[in-house]
Amino acid sequence: MTSSGHGVPARNGEHGVSVISASSHQRIVHIPNILPHERVFPIQIGTELFKLSGASLSSDAPSYFSQYFLCQLKQASDAGQDPSTAIRTLYIDRDPVTFKDISLHLQGYHVRPRDATHLVRLFADAQFYSLPKLMSQLYEEPIHITIGSTPFQIPREIFSLSGPGNTPNFFTLGFAMFFSNPEDLFPGLDKEGLIRPPSIVAPNVPNRSAEVFQELLHMLRGYPVKIRDERHRQELLKDCRWYNFKGLEQRLIPHEKGFNQVRGREEIVLGLRDIMKSGISVANEPVEGDPLAAWVNYARPYADDKAMELVLEIGEEATQLHIGPGGKEEVRAEFFTDIKAKMAKLFEVIATKLNLPPFTQPSGLLMAKGGRGSEPSTSRDALLSEDLVRVILDPEASITLDGQPWTADESDQTAHPSLPANGTTNNTPGTTIPSASSSSGGPSTAETPDSINPSTKPSPFQQSSSPDENPNPRKRRRLDSSPPYGVTSVSTSSPLGGEQWIVKTGQWRLRIQSSPNPNPAKASVVECCLVAVKLDALSSERKRNERRGFLGG
């Protein structure tokens, strides 16, 4: 058997067995001469006696064992005694089952923790016995944690290798002892005269779902997870936020990215509740006649490496459109519930990105809390040229009104039907709605349905042939409705004097442009407009009720 130079293992040509050179073998099996290798030292752990050679005890030293027996050998040598009779048994009141694995480690075997309880016991005793090699090995092992009732092994490097934003998290903070350095263990604990180490509870998270965590762990390893439905997505997002996996959360939020060939740019669709301040940016795009024109862009923190044009989705029926006498040229948006506060915050962030100063003029975002002047405004007001947010109904926008496609050309026909001076007829022939003068107590010539001659009353199955009757009832405003008994009447008139739409769900682009009618009190020359991309709107309460569903399907 021969060995090649430079310590490279040589191959026995006859038997085809690789062997290690003498120098390499010495480096691998070298044990420092701390205790006599051939001598046996007795150690009693609890009720069980262990006898380990000096070579085994010296293999992971200096330790509690090596220091104890070195002192005995030195005392015997100073007293001229025989070391074999002078060495006393070391007794330690610890768990003998755990020490069996530690003795295997001292004898040269690799010991791997079986579960979370086994890990913390090895961890605590390795610290107590001051075994440097075993502590170093345990710091490289996966962390054993029980989620719900299921044990998991979490690689230590998984959070740093899974991408930015996933650390610090619940595990690195809540179980910092297992993710720290050996020198930082038990901070503030005085180890001098320590009889036994403090009790360590096995890592356990009993109040979370093991199935959900298994999928999150799968994603942290770099594998995709198929989202089965919206409920499944919300379960993943809920635990992502609980564990503080911010990078993973941004990958899971509902979004859609793509390249818009018509506009020649990349865009991202996101819900308002998922917008984060750090992802907002403004891309200047000056055009002829408007050097201040720009579009709001967005990049998901920790997930996107470049910003894309933002298409903002707002649902929950929290948007109301006010259409003025000018039709599609005079449309404003008003927001309700907590969506209003979130839109106000969004405008503040955009104004900050534009370096706009704060103003004291109240904005239309505060109208639902008492009207003008109900609250002091902030920098968001610099983006509002009027009380409400300006809306642009783009000709390319996809708009559905009351379940039917709607185009911008219909706005002049549907937004403001003309009303006669003295009264307006409703859909029922022969019925007249009194004018303001007649309803105030003056004489009225309005007929009620009961005063109609029965012989002339049309049949409910007879189709009206009146040329003045609108053939499309969707385009006629109902004026004969009154609130039911016990319900307080709420004014539904638009501040602009025209139609109102309830937007169930809308997708908008955010455009920065020069204000066409700058407010001298604000001294603002720019405003943020909502450019419609896709809208699902309702024109009345009746249409809203028609789209309701019953509980249980």
Automatic annotation (TrEMBL):
<feature type="region of interest" description="Disordered">
    <location>
        <begin position="401"/>
        <end position="498"/>
    </location>
</feature>
<feature type="compositionally biased region" description="Polar residues">
    <location>
        <begin position="450"/>
        <end position="469"/>
    </location>
</feature>
<protein>
    <recommendedName>
        <fullName>Potassium channel tetramerisation-type BTB domain-containing protein</fullName>
    </recommendedName>
</protein>
<feature type="compositionally biased region" description="Low complexity">
    <location>
        <begin position="422"/>
        <end position="449"/>
    </location>
</feature>
<dbReference type="InterPro" id="IPR011333">
    <property type="entry name" value="SKP1/BTB/POZ_sf"/>
</dbReference>
